[in-house]
Every structure is written in C-alpha cells, then in structure tokens.
C-alpha cells in the first residue's frame, strides 16, 4: 500500500476558519491525506487565511516567503491558500507568489480535492449556489468533547470598517434539519458541547427557525450538555433569544456581543445602526433574563474621526457594562471598505487609546476571574493538565479551570469549587 500523503494546515483568524480547516482536512482525508504538525514532511501545505486586519493579511505573505526554500527542495509539494485573503487577493497571490499552486475562497472548499488533483495552477473564488458543507465528507469516530458548527455565514450589515461582507459574501443560513443531523452525529462521536458559529449568528433564519428556535431544538438532543453561539450583532438580539437564555439550561451563561464603540457619533459613522443607549438597554434585558451571564465584546479604537471625547464615551460604556473579557483592536484601513477613504486618526493617538482601553478591560477580566473564587463551577474536561493528576476544562463562563482529579477523563463534566484565580485561569477542587 502507498504511504498516506501528509497535509499540513495552518489556520489564521476566527473560529469559523478553525471549523473550515477541520472540514477541509476531512475532505482531504477522503483523498488519502493524513494531517501532520510538521511542515517539513508535508506533501501539501494549506494556509487558511484571515483578511480582517492588515496585520493578519501580511502574515500570509511572510509565511509564504518562509516556505520558499522548502518548496525549492521539494517541488512536488503543493502549496494552497484558502480563506479570506484568498477570496480578496487571489490573483495578486498568484502573481506575487510563484510557489502557490492553488487559491481557494471560503465558498469553494468542496472543490478543493478536485483542484489538488488538477494539473497547473488553480484558482476558485466563486460564490457558488450549492452549499459547500453538503459536499464535504464528515469523518467518523471519536472527536473530543467540544465542537464548532457553522450555522450561518456571511454578512449583510456592511459596517464601514469591515471586509467580511466582501470576503464571505451575503448572509446565508444553513437548513435547520441538516444542522440538527450534524449535531446528532457530533454527539454520537463524543461531543458534549457545541458552539454554533456565524459571522452574524443571531441573524440565523433557516427553515423558518430563528437562532432561538434552533437552540431549543438542539437542546433536545440527548447527551448534548452545552450550547454556545458566536458572534452576534446587537440589532439581531431578539426577545426570543433573550428568553432562551432564561429558559434553556444547556445554553451557557456567556455572550459575546460586539459593540465596537461607545460613541453614538462613531457608531453612526461605522454604520452600526444602533446607539450606545440601545446596547446598554439590551445588556440590561439579557442580565434580567440570565443574571449570571458573562459578557464579552469587540472594540475598535482610532476609527476615522474618533475624538478624545468619543473615546471617553467608549471607556464610559465599558465601565457601565463590566465585561468578562474583550478584544480591543486598533482600527486598520481595509481596501474596498468605505472607512478606508477617510482620514485616519494619528497612529500614536490610536496606540495610546488602545493601551488605555486594554488596561480597563484587563482590570475587568481580573475582577471577573477573582469573583469566581469560592463559587461552584461545572467543568467540561478538554485535556490533562501539566501537573500529574490534573485536568483542564472550561467552566460555564468559558473560563479555563484546572482541577486536581487523578481519575478524571477528557469529556467528563464535573462540579468543582474554585480556590484561586489568575487572569486567564481558575484552580478548583473536585466536589
Ligand atoms: N480594523 C480593526 N478591527 C476590525 N475588526 C473588523 N474590521 C476591523 C478593522 N478594519 C474587528 C471588529 C470585529 C472583529 C472580528 O474584528 O471589532 O468585531
Ligand atoms: Fe463585519 Fe459588521 Fe458584518 Fe460583523 S456585522 S461581520 S463587523 S460587517
């Protein structure tokens, strides 16, 4: 028998890319490829890229530069570029990087196996009408206690700074019946927690279901103990979804709800179509439904036109909400987006704001972690810890928890009391 070919995948960016990479690995698995962690032994290298900020895009070109020697020594090795940079800059990648054999955009992954077999350089950045996931084979067998499941893709919101509507295309929801089947298959393979993914997941509308409807149906699946979803837009946070947070025990008390800015002027310039007051009102309703919910967000500082006063309004909003964590980004002008035409805020001003905001968020994160000390948490073990007899998993609030548990196994769901906290993890004793 021929030795299996080896596939090395590097994933940049968001969780949807993580999910896509898994599915591409499965598709290539059906073609006889096994995954490797060592790029030097790969027969094929696939870079699954992110275009959201300039720095993320640049990583692709520096990584490709580093692959040049390897490709020169091993010309038969295939180099593929997938993901959002592939979608946005396919032609430029081929022109600048002769070592690249194929470029495949996010909506064409089901065509990857055929592209790998074809002669010559291949590029596919179409937006085909068929659902790529229907044409990507799924692996069987045990696959660990947590999984992502893409339920919705693309975005019609057109925030002025964002490339997603261009790279991932228009918003499309996958049919609920297929998603329920996939969820059941995942559970049969050992999964106990599923995170529903979408660029605008709370806008989900497949086969007459809202996201809340889908969550309620998924919660009926025997053995599926936990559900999460990410990432959401404030304007799609319907009352039924808020009610689900109160009523569906499997839905974890955790919500990532990006707001981007606390200034109404900047929110308007960003085309977010909501105000800071609307967002705060929403947070109030969600906390009323689920008082222990942990909130996280995304922020952009230095958006064109942002004044010190605008920025202080962001700081005020952060103080008013009290987050468990948040991603803070310095604005990055993206080609083709409306905001890229505007005069940028000086870089050093944006840097200073970023530091100030990150300082506040870090303090809030530490306070949220510290507040868990003495509390009982449920932990879903994901892997053994570094110390002997230790297991590591996530709490309901997605906090990493270390538990001393000599007989614990990956996939166990246990109760434990938190004894100490640092910024990124908790220690707890088994109950
Ligand atoms: N510059 C900086 N941050 C951005 N994001 C999206 N586009 C940009 C940009 N051009 C951030 C937003 C979004 C997250 C995924 O990335 O905060 O919520
Ligand atoms: Fe980008 Fe806005 Fe759509 Fe989120 S909602 S993907 S930030 S355009």
From TrEMBL:
PROSITE patterns found in the cross-reference section: MTTASE_N, MTTASE_RADICAL, RADICAL_SAM, TRAM
Cite the InterPro entries for this sequence: Elp3/MiaA/NifB-like_rSAM (IPR006638), Methylthiotransferase (IPR005839), Methylthiotransferase_CS (IPR020612), Methylthiotransferase_N (IPR013848), Methylthiotransferase_N_sf (IPR038135), MiaB_methiolase (IPR006463), rSAM (IPR007197), rSAM_horseshoe (IPR023404)
Q: How is the cofactor bound?
A: Binds 2 [4Fe-4S] clusters. One cluster is coordinated with 3 cysteines and an exchangeable S-adenosyl-L-methionine.
The record's keywords, sorted A to Z, are: 4Fe-4S, Cytoplasm, Iron, Iron-sulfur, Metal-binding, S-adenosyl-L-methionine, Transferase, tRNA processing
List each copy of the MTTase N-terminal domain by range: 5-121
Q: Which residues form the TRAM domain?
A: 370-431
Is Phosphoprotein there in the keyword field? no
GO molecular function per UniProt? tRNA-2-methylthio-N(6)-dimethylallyladenosine(37) synthase activity
Cofactors demanded by this protein: [4Fe-4S] cluster
Which residues are involved in binding [4Fe-4S] cluster 2? 155, 159, 162
**Short name of one Pfam family:** Radical_SAM
Instruction: Give the enzyme's EC designation.
Output: 2.8.4.3
| Record-stated family | Belongs to the methylthiotransferase family. MiaB subfamily.
Q: What is this protein called?
A: tRNA-2-methylthio-N(6)-dimethylallyladenosine synthase
Q: Which organism is it from?
A: Pseudogemmobacter lacusdianii
């Amino acid at each position: 028998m021929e030795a299996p070919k080896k596939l090395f995948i590097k994933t940049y960016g968001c969780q949807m890319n993580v999910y896509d990479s898994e599915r591409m690995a499965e598709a290539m698995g059906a073609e006889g490829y096994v995954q490797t962690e060592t790029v030097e032994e790969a027969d094929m290298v696939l870079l699954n890229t992110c275009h959201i900020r300039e720095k993320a895009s640049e990583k692709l070109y520096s990584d490709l530069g580093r692959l040049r020697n390897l490709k020169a020594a091993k010309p038969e090795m295939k180099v593929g570029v997938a993901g959002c940079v592939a979608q946005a800059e396919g032609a430029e990648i081929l022109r600048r990087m002769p070592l690249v054999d194929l470029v495949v955009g996010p909506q064409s992954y089901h065509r990857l196996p055929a592209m790998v077999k074809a002669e010559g350089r291949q590029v596919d950045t179409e937006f085909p009408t068929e659902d790529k996931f229907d044409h990507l084979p799924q692996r069987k067998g045990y696959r660990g206690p947590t999984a992502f499941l893409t339920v919705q893709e693309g975005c019609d919101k057109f925030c002025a700074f964002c490339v997603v509507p261009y790279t991932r295309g228009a918003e499309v929801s996958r049919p609920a019946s297929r998603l329920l089947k996939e969820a059941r298959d995942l559970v049969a393979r050992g999964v106990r927690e599923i995170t529903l993914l979408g660029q605008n997941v709370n806008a989900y509308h497949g086969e007459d279901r809202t996201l809340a409807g889908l969550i309620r149906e998924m919660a009926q699946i025997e053995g599926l103990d936990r559900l999460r979803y990410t990432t959401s837009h404030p304007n799609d946070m319907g009352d039924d979804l808020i009610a689900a947070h109160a009523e569906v025990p499997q839905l974890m008390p955790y919500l990532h709800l990006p707001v981007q800015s606390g200034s109404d002027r900047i929110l308007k310039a960003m085309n977010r179509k909501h105000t800071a007051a609307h967002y705060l009102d929403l947070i109030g309703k969600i906390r009323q439904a689920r008082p222990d919910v942990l909130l996280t967000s995304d922020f952009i500082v230095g958006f064109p036109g942002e004044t010190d006063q605008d920025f202080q309004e962001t700081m005020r909003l952060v103080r008013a909400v009290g987050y468990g964590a948040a991603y803070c980004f310095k604005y990055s002008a993206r080609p083709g987006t409306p905001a890229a035409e505007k005069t940028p805020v000086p870089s050093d001003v944006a840097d200073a704001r970023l530091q100030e905001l990150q300082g506040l968020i870090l303090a809030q994160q530490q306070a949220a972690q510290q507040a868990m000390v003495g509390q009982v948490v449920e932990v879903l073990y994901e892997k053994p810890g570094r110390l002997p007899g230790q297991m590591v998993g996530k709490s309901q609030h997605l906090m990493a928890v270390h538990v001393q548990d000599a007989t614990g196994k990956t996939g166990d769901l246990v109760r434990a009391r938190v004894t100490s906290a640092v910024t990124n993890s908790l220690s707890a004793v088994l109950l």
